[in-house]
Amino acid sequence: MNAPGTSRVARTGRRGEGGWPWLAAGGVALSLLMVTALLVLLASRGLGHFWPAALERVTLSDGEVIAGQLIRRIETRDGRHEWLYATANRDLDGRAWRWVDAGRIVDRDTPEELVRLERRRWGPFIGYLRAVEPSIADAGMSPSSAARWQALQDRLARTRALRERLSALRASTLEPLADEIAATDNPSPATLAAFAKARQRLVELQQALDGESLTLESADGRRLTLPLEEVLDAWRPNAMDPLAKLGAWGQRVWAFLSEGPRAANTGGGVWPAIFGTVLMVMLMSLVVTPFGVLAAVYLHEIAYQGRLTRLVRIAVRNLAGVPSIVYGVFGLGVFVYGIGGQLDQWLFSERLPSPTFGTGGLLWASLTLALLTLPVVIVATEEGLARIPDHQREGALALGATRYETLRRVVLPMTLPAMLTGVILAVARAAGEVAPLMLVGVVKLAPQLALDGQFPFLHLDGKFMHLGYHIYSLGFQGDDVESALPLVYATALLLVAVIVVLNLTAIFLRHHLRARHRALHR
Predict the structure, then answer these.
(1) How confident is the model at residue 145 (pLDDT cuts 50, 70, 90)?
(2) Tens digits of residue pLDDT in 376-405
(3) In angstroms, rounded to a whole number, what is the distance separating the alpha carbons of residues 299 and 148?
(4) How many Cβ atoms from other residues are within 10 Å of residue 505's Cβ?
(5) 360 pLDDT exceeds 60?
(6) Residue of 455, 456, 488, 449 lying closest to 472 (CA atoms)
(7) Which residue among 200, 359, 380, 514 is least packed, with the fewest CB closer than 10 Å?
(8) Angle at Cα 505 formed by Cα 503 and Cα 507, nearest 5°?
(9) Number of H helices and number of E strands within the chain?
(10) pLDDT score of 494 more than 70
């Protein structure tokens, strides 16, 4: 039981606080609510795009028939209701979207025979499957809708296997042999024979791909013949149960994560952008961490604490607030045109005027972002150094350790959590920056990864894709805003997830080092 005086003081203290605790708690709750709402919006709009939604066949009052996916409904200022349908079939209609006056709709249904195809070119197709060539009747099958659909699924599986074999043949045999022949003035007969054999096999596989086609029909009766090699996937959403739709949704999400982009980035996946973002952040972290830590150690532990040091410290803190585009201009002028241009003069003069390092690339982008995040690491590390009690240093010196040994064995291990905090903040900022990257190496489309199996394996001069720039490109540089909008949400959610994973990795490492440091000093 508390003494009367103690409880009276506690009650007086709570009265003196007023409503500030509640106001602080409300601020935290509002922040969490806003973050949750943002994540829910990104997840619902982005991940919902991959769900196989129902396809409708709509008959209008003038007899016109359209088929598509209902996207949204709006009410105009004059009280009319407009419905937006994703009708696809850009090659037939010149457009993939259709606004329909709800008052003109006579009939709506969802026939199971409606098919949605994902194609290499011209985007998706929505309509009916009328024939699979060579005809399935030649194999003794009834040309019913179910038989045609099963034949399409079987042949799509075969086509995917042929594509994988083609890709493997190019990557493992044809391209290395072509590079070897190009690099040698007099290639050996065995190399030439192997190259000719690989090319012949490539032609055979391509002929096997080109031998089949589909006959399709739109909702208004127009027919289209499509090579099967152009079809990437096909499904009938109206005939799928929820479990089948869930499986198709998982396949489409995985394809989005693991494939490269196509159709001006409005189709396909974002794997090159994921890889480019993570690789650039890792290279940036490898550069900024040692330089930031060394600068902080010098400012706090070595430099004379006079007016000049205080001015340098103020300048470093002010650099953290400089707009990122300024760093991009600096990187373009100093790294790309300055250092890169000089390297081309020294090492790659025979390739000029085509630049090697005198143009934007992965190396210059990483260095630019390292420069951008350097103040963050310096400030966080210096604050960690300031929190170490002086008696820790004095005790080490009293036991006979030198200043270097004190710094290496006592001060720096105790500062590791603060260093990693700076790296976490640097990663969080660098992964989301776009403006400086537009000047020093990021591009809209770069299907070739900067890290591959060819010497020197890591191509620092190569262009790369970035998730942040991919969002900008989809949202502001594409012609089809409606098609790009769900991908903008999905890519934004993916960028948040990548940043969270990178930060959690650094946080786990910080926790591990902190626990290890405590165990060593028990």
Answers:
(1) confident
(2) 999 989 988 888 888 888 888 888 888 888
(3) 75
(4) 12
(5) yes
(6) 488
(7) 200
(8) 70
(9) 18, 12
(10) yes
